[in-house]
Structure formats: C-alpha cells, structure tokens
Amino acid sequence: MSYKCKVILVGEAGVGKTCLIKQYIYKTFDSEEIPTIAGVELYKELILNNEKIKLTIWDTCGQERFRSINKIFINKSNIVILVYDITKRESFEELQNYWYKNVVSNLGNDIIYAVAANKTDLFADEKVHANDGFKYAQSIGAVFKETSSTTHDSIEELFEELAIKFLKKNSKNYKKQNFEINYDKKNGKKKKMC
C-alpha cells in the first residue's frame, strides 16, 4: 500500500530548517544557505514493511514578516518538526511561545510532533541544554532529537522515527517488529532492519 505524508518544519529564521531538509534528502550542507522567504516543497520516498510512504517535506520561512504565509503551508500537515538552534535561547523560547501554539491552533493535537535541537556541532556555544528541549518535547508529546545539519547527526533517525509513528497511526497492517526501511535509488541506498 502507498501512503502520502506531509511533513512541515517550523521555527525561527536561521535555526537550520533548510539545511536539515537538504542534509536528509541530498546529504549536502551549504554554510551559505540563504533564508527561505516562501514555502519550499521537497520529496522523499521510504519503504517500511513493504508499504511505500511518500514524504512531502515543506520548508517554511521563519522571519516574522512572513509568518502569516506559513498558515497556508501548515494546513493539512501530518507531521510537524519544531526546530530550534541550541546556540540561540530566543529560538527555543519562540518555539514554545509562538510556533507550537500557532501550529496547534491550525492543526490541533491529533498530529505527530517532533522537537529538533539543531546545530549540536556548535555545542561549545550551547545556550539551551538538551534536557530543556527533552522536557519540553515530553510536555507536548513530541519526539525529541538533537541534530546537526553540518555533521548529519540524528537526521535520518528523526525522519525514520516520525515515518514509523505515521505508519503506526495510519496503517492497520503495520507491525512494530521487524520493520524495514529501504530508500529508493534516487535517494541513495540504505537498508535497515531492527
């Protein structure tokens, strides 16, 4: 069976949403990435337990002047990844004070949430301890991952875990045991068994 899953990344400008997506899909990092000023849509296909999931991954703009546009892109999302920069305390505070509340007011609680503590390669400049991010994720029932777009840390795991949660929620045939992930040839070769 084939499934379509809309994933959206939200958070302040400069937290690394675009870089996270590009690292996940293309395995590349661009330190000169320009800010996103409109929603950008990218795709990736996964196969889990012989069921195909097409992830439509939306990158959104974080600048305050473009926030009203994001409501259009948030609409009908299945998964929301809330991203903050561990070196910028205000990005974590805005995640709680604006981004999560905005998404919940548009989508409600019946979707899959994740919190990504991004830029862990800059640990020496950390302003938000991982424990704070973890506690916040727990409080909203979200998956928590520490990620780095530079080093690719935990990005695959984040998307895989969310795809599995999506299947558990939407597939009557999905079993937790022996899940299998195969990436199509366009997206690289990887196979994982648990």
Give keywords.
194 residues; 5 helices; globular; 32% helix; Rossmann fold; eight-stranded mixed beta sheet; alpha/beta; 8 strands
Radius of gyration: 16 Å
Q: Given the C-alpha coordinates, what overall shape results?
A: globular
User: In CATH terms, what is the architecture?
Assistant: 3-Layer(aba) Sandwich
Distance between the termini: 21 Å
Query: How are the strands ordered across the major sheet?
Result: 6-5-4-1-3-2-7-8
- Annotation field: number of helices: 5
Strand content: 25-35%
Query: If you consult CATH, what is the topology?
Result: Rossmann fold
CATH class: Alpha Beta
Share in helix: 25-40%
Number of strands: 8
Give the SSE layout.
Layout: E1 2-10, H1 17-26, E2 40-48, E3 51-59, H2 67-74, E4 79-85, H3 89-107, E5 112-118, H4 130-139, E6 143-146, H5 155-170, E7 180-183, E8 191-193
Parallel strand pairs: 1-3, 1-4, 4-5, 5-6
Antiparallel strand pairs: 2-3, 2-7, 7-8
Question: Could you characterize what this model shows?
Answer:
- This protein is of the alpha/beta class and 194 residues long.
- It has a single domain, classed as P-loop containing nucleotide triphosphate hydrolases (Rossmann fold), CATH 3.40.50.
- It has an 8-stranded mixed β-sheet, sandwiched between helices.
- The C terminus is likely disordered.
